[in-house]
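User: Fold this one for me? It's CHAT domain-containing protein.
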Amino acid sequence: MAREATTRPASDGRTSMMRRLANVALALALALGTLSGATARADAPAKPAAAMLDDEAIEKDVEALYAAGKYGEALAAAQRLVALREQKYGKEHAKTGSALSDLGGMYLATGDAPKAESLLRRAVEILEASKGADDLLATALGNLGAMLKKKGDSKGAEKLYERAVALEEKGGAPRESALGTVLANLAGLYMATGRLPQAEKVFLRAITIHEKAGPERSLLNDLGSLGALYRGMGRYDKAADQFNRALPLAARVHGTNHPDVGRLHHNIAVFLTGSNQKDLAAEHYRNAEAILTRTLGPRHPDLATVYSDWALLWARSDWKQAAGLYEKALDIEEQWLESALVGGTEEDKTLYATRLETLMDRVVSFEYGGDGRGRPEVMRIALGAVLRNKARVLEASAAHVGALRERMSPEDRTLLDELARVRGAYAAAMTRGPRGMTVAEHNAETDRLRAEADAIEARIAERSAGYRRGRAKVTIEAVAARIPKDAVLMEFVRYQPRNTHFYSAASERLGRPKYMVYVLWPDGRVWHHQMSVDAFEIDRKVDLIRKGLQDPSARPHETGTQLALLHDVLFGQVGAELGPVKHVLISPDAALALVPFGALIDRENKFLITKYSFTYLSTGRDLLRLGAGGGARRSAPLLVANPDYDAPGEAGATALPDAPKGSLPTIARVKFSPLPGTAEEADALRRLLPDPSVRLERVATETALKQASSPRILHVATHGFFLGSDGKAGQGKARGLELEVPPESLPQVASEVDGRKLPVPHPMFLSGIALAGANVRKGQADDGILTAYEASSLDLTGTELVVLSACETGLGERAGSEGVRGLRRALVLAGSETQVMSLWQVDDEATRDLMTTYYQKLFREGKGRAEAMRESQLALLQRPDHSHPYYWASFIVSGAWGPLEGVTPAKNEATSAVRGAVPPGGARGCGCEVAGRNGGTRVPWGGFAALVALAVARRMRGARARGQGEARPRRIGVAPRVSPPAPPQPGSRPPVPRPAAP
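Assistant: Here's what I get for CHAT domain-containing protein.
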């Protein structure tokens, strides 16, 4: 990752440096002329000896063909070498391991990193088990390190490079040239992760070695890389020196027909772009494009990097050229990512998907803040890229399992069952911690189970690749055609603004990340708006608002003010563009996935829910698949409620001893209290659903959920939890788990991607629901705790609706454009169409009423899944004692929004809520006593509306006082304080926002 600070040029002065640059430019032009007429090196093999059945000769051919830049021929020879050595020596021999390393290296050179990984890992495994193969192992480690760097796993790559360096240093003089190569690779990693002085030191060491021991082609690569490093450091004179030395060397070593020469031209072009030598830079870009296309093919990912950088050159003067180059770069990267997502684990896919981040940042920056601003063509390019690439990992992972279930064979069923079993065992081990064993034994067990789960996941991806239908290219027109006539799509994207006028690793990033929203209408019109406040500030305010909404007794006037101000930032400008729209399809990004948009307060002092029905999507691309499950096989609705958390479970099962304090994770120390109110909720819903299967108390188990096969509806009413990685399990004083979780007890971060921290290896361990036996912790796979990780293996293919009537089931670890990794993501992976989840700790009685009304509207009135929730929430809002958003705004609808299949409104059917005495069961988190609930004094939340009215009125007065006429969005961090209103007179009631007619 580039450093934020800009390093100053060398001390010989700006004027002197520019004179040197002019001389260098002339030298480069002369060298370029020499290159254009040069021929390929005579030492390239005239006739490969691959026809011979001598494996040593074939190995030499692989090396020679690779050195000559003939990667396709080298790949074919490497494939023959592996086959021959497996036959000659066996699959576990060191020579076979070396051949696998060569083959993996060839796949990496041709741009197929996913194929390379499995081969290189196998090679390392073989060579580590072989004696006297340190030199071969060092090469394999270096190749695997290069693959991990390409994948984005910088920490993993660095460890492998360091091991390779140690082995090469141990080899002495015979391994000196190889040592220089791995040192150069390590220096390149330091440069990519922003450690520029460290990179310079190691590059210089590599150059010294290659100047002495050769080969010249390695020295050439070192010089080009060091030039790129100096350019990034702002030391342009030194960069020019390296490039001026490298170009003639390239002509002598390779001629013009080698990928390394194309890469050198690319590095020089970037340098010249940054030093404002446009014409010469363009010539080098053209040479880079021609050479790389000729030697690697037109779809190689290296070309995408060339096009992305080239666009920065044209962004100054020709926006059409720049836009066209960005389109080319996106096309190549998206096609490459499509192939990369076919195999591997979800973590692998996440790493590969990060390759697109910088390119996406550049495209959005060019569209909004660069020379492409205000141009509809560029806006459509940016929105198209967002629609195609947001939540790609979620889509690919769900498609793998879906493809297998669609054509279920006995082998497929066995594989999916085995994955569910291993995931359950892994989750149970993680949940209980190292009880009854040492920490080392526990770590060994969890490592084994995770490796087993990852291997099965990779096999599922590989097996499903043959079943999956081709993915048609997503277009704006196709998405717009699926938007209802009275709706719009709001596609939010969080991005890092970048300088689109020149390239400098030290100065390309501009300020803090921002949020952008693209609005798409059914007729294909596109509008956009960038939030005036940076993303960090918005994220902070989202967290503050969520905390305020979790505790209705804590400063409601401040919460109301913040809801109004957040509306101004996120929705203020957009609302004026929506016109008669009634339904908003929200595709949030990052922290915005946790915003209850219906609870935002507009300038008319109305909650947005009174104007719009909201449906949440992972991406606008979801519109192309939602509703495609009609006619799917489905079983009866399943209701799971009021689990007996103290149930002993299976015969003979006993509770394990308490986990050591600080064990991983500390959910093992939670005791769940009964929720008898959820049984009443299930009883009310039983009368509304068609022939449901009901599981209560001791039979409300994990097994009941795991054995379910595509229930039409799944409704679970129980405790929910989210163990935030900030060290707390739950927030506020309502239904969350009031349990301190030491940060060191949480799963550790596995790696970084170009300096960006990834989520914990399995963040879906941090959220889940409690079921029968949860307090016993039996230790088996079905331990009463269903984590989101396990829930992703449920069979919910064709399930129309999943309702988790519990606390915080919509929360999870934030994962950028991949949304939130928690229960909602798990249910999408499991195949469900629509998910109803909660964003904070919910009130038991209000939730009972909300859910009963919701199902009435679904089954008796035939309402859509989103509109039924809106009307149910409005009904609660109209009750003075429930007008605070805490009671009605927690639940959101995500996914398909239409009516349930085959449901028609009943005629003359009473639609009032099913009433009945509900025993106070406490919160659906830990059962904590809360003021205003559980027998406490209920707060008259009609007063909340009056407080909000004053907050909004003051906001409007402030705007008019500034002569603006209409208030404009302002920084939400400076919200005015609002004093509580005077108590109402007897017989009167504070004003309550009334919903508009649905």
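One thing worth pointing out: The mean pLDDT is 78.
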